[in-house]
Amino acid sequence: MRISEVQTPALVIEGAIAQQNIAAMAAALPGTRLRPHMKATKCTSLAREQVRAGHTTFTCATPREVVGMVKAGVGDDLLLANECVDSIRLQEMAALQDNALITVAIDSEETLQAAHAAGIQHVLIDVNVGLPRCGIAPELAGSLADKARSLGKTVRGVMGYEGHLMMVADHSERLAKVEACMTLLRSAANDVGGDIISAGGTGTYNLHDNTGVTEIQAGSYSLMDTQYAQLGLPFTQAVFVIGTVISSSTQWAVIDVGLKSLGMDHGNPSIDGHAVWFCSDEHTTFSPNEGAPPKVGTRIRVIPAHVDPTVAQHDAAWVVNGDDVIDRWAIDLRGW
Amino acid sequence: MRISEVQTPALVIEGAIAQQNIAAMAAALPGTRLRPHMKATKCTSLAREQVRAGHTTFTCATPREVVGMVKAGVGDDLLLANECVDSIRLQEMAALQDNALITVAIDSEETLQAAHAAGIQHVLIDVNVGLPRCGIAPELAGSLADKARSLGKTVRGVMGYEGHLMMVADHSERLAKVEACMTLLRSAANDVGGDIISAGGTGTYNLHDNTGVTEIQAGSYSLMDTQYAQLGLPFTQAVFVIGTVISSSTQWAVIDVGLKSLGMDHGNPSIDGHAVWFCSDEHTTFSPNEGAPPKVGTRIRVIPAHVDPTVAQHDAAWVVNGDDVIDRWAIDLRGW
Predict the structure, then answer these.
(1) Mapping DSSP to helix (H, G, I), strand (E, B) and coil, where does residue B284 land?
(2) Superfamily of domain A15-222
């Protein structure tokens, strides 16, 4: 099958580039030093490539990701790096604890009790290291771990996501800020115990040599987007949304890629050699930097500004090698 | 079932409010004066309510919407108000022409030929009235209609979407600009012939009394969003995304509603009585205007900034009356 035969809009992954990204990360953070994050890709087929590269532990943002990974038989140590008080979903995960080591993040008495009531055995203390989101205050982490142990839980350690630092442009400033956050996390880890100190993401994966962190939670690196590309990381854009020109005038052209096939929170997507004017529900209007707009029927590659919510809009990705389609990967972990 | 039993994030429609919106629009634009747009709701169950209110003609943005409406038996006159050169999808629609009157918009020789090759019988000329997107230049519309007729097509008329005017804040300025656009459309209609002059949207539905337009394509009015609410229209917010607080600190709380359950192109969603700080993939961080942040487990209603791409993120909507769930409507026309 040729890429020209795929109906648009279509999520397309350059297989060789994704493999290069996966290999580059596996060289930098081999085996369990990386706990690849499934929220970016929501695709067990891609996770299998990460297993082939040597990773066995995975990070998930939703119970559906955890359950889907276990059912697909991918990974043997799955961390729900997010809080959950949904008893049904916690029970679904608990029912799979014989099939994989499942660990659930907690940051409060309520999330501990919910996990406990559902029969979750392994927990990890989520620590706030500066991003105003989930995570317990570092000085309270030890106390929550004690409560968890008093309920018979196994406390595997701590995590602390420095998500507010991913896009700090200057490398040395980013490094200094990451190290300050990780001082908080190490302090909490001392109080909590356990073997795991988990942190990081694609934007800070290479800043943890001296932070004491045992593993990095990065996901976007395998596919990339225009925002992460600004950081000059050794990963290359591997994912695109392909559209077809459906209308063309003397000044602009329109493709069938719009708000419903793109994540828009980081702004407009990009098109090489063209200026993107705006996106509508089912369209993107754009014009070439030089020459006439492309004709009706032309295929156009759109580069997403934010990979995670873009991938989540699609039910499958077409894996290509040049113009040849070599596989179709279901985005089987999307939804909730 | 109670709304508190629904797993989150969940798309929720206040059934009575949606009915009021549908009734208010049907009073203003009864029967075929409104051609409800399915791109906003992508839900045949909601379209059935619009049929009960007297509408029989519908606007679609994608072939999937057209095919889904025919297969659901909703509406008897379906307009694909968008260009398509996908031969497979055009053939899928053509195969259903005995079941409903299906009309496909064209704005070029290429889109005419694609529709013709697939066996589409009814076309409508999409005219550019100022929005830089699809649509042929008004002065060329008659010539394209002639070509269509020479191929044996039935040309039903014209459409011209003044989408660039939907959010012009001042009513009289909006009215004047709409009338100027519609002068272009009427001129094209004179050249094209046919019975239909189709235009408009929720933001301009009440500005067409003297424009010569025969029908309005509005969809968002039934559910509404925070952006359209700024226009002071007689429609009330009927759709929400319900989340559960999963983490709460002294200064903020976090719910399980994020970029993947919201359309973000119009910016952050709103929460009554609270300030939204930011949205992440699976989270929204927010704080109350007064008092302490809500506790873990609290249900929170999020008001989307843009209804169309928000609805398209969900596979179903829960229809509620107060705290009671009265129905579950599949968002069965999403995807492509």
Answers:
(1) strand
(2) Alanine racemase (3.20.20.10)
Structure tokens at B153: 């097509």
The answer for B 309-328 residues in CB contact with A (under 8 A) is 309, 312-313, 315
- The answer to whether residue B63 neighbours chain A at the CB level (below 8 Å) is no
Cβ of A264 within 8 Å of Cβ of B309? The answer is yes
* Residue A107 near residue A135 (C-beta atoms within 8 A): yes
Q: Is B263 on the interface with A (CB under 8 A)?
A: yes
CB contact under 8 A, A246 and B85: yes
The number of residues making up chain B comes to 336
Identity (one letter) of the amino acid at A292?
A
- List helix spans (H) across A164-212: 171-192
B167 in A contact zone (CB under 8 Å): no
DSSP-derived secondary structure for A130-169: SSSSS-B-GGGHHHHHHHHHHTT-EEEEEEE--GGGTT-S
The domain defined by A3-11+234-330 folds into Lyase, Ornithine Decarboxylase; Chain A, domain 1 (2.40.37)
Which pLDDT score is estimated for B166? 84
3-state secondary structure (DSSP) of residue A275: strand
Q: Convert the pLDDT of each residue in A14-62 to its tens digit.
A: 999 999 999 999 999 999 999 999 999 999 999 999 999 999 999 999 9
State how far residue A259 is from chain B, nearest Cα, in angstroms: 6
CA-CA distance, B108 to B253, in Å (whole number)?
52
- SS3 of residue B215 by DSSP: strand
Q: A41, A129, A296: best mutation site toward chain B, by most B Cβ within 10 Å?
A: A296
Q: Which residue of A has its CA nearest to B135?
A: A247
Q: CATH number of the domain at B15-221, please?
A: 3.20.20.10
Spatial CB neighbours of A195, under 8 Å, sequence gap ≥ 6 = A156, A157, A214
| A167 close to B (CB below 8 A) | no
Q: What is the DSSP letter of B59?
A: E
Q: Do A88 and B7 touch (CB under 8 A)?
A: yes
pTM, 2 dp: 0.96
Buried b (16+ CB within 10 A) or exposed e, B299-312: bbbbbbbbbbbbbb
Q: Which amino acid is at B293?
A: P
Check if A248 contacts B (Cβ < 8 Å): yes
For residue B36, pLDDT beyond 90: yes
- Does A260 sit within 8 Å of B312, measured CB to CB? yes
Three-state secondary structure readout of B126-154? EECCCCCCCCECHHHHHHHHHHHHHCCCE
* Domain boundaries along the sequence of chain A: 3-11+234-330, 15-222
**Alpha-carbon gap, residue B73 to B93, rounded angstroms:** 14
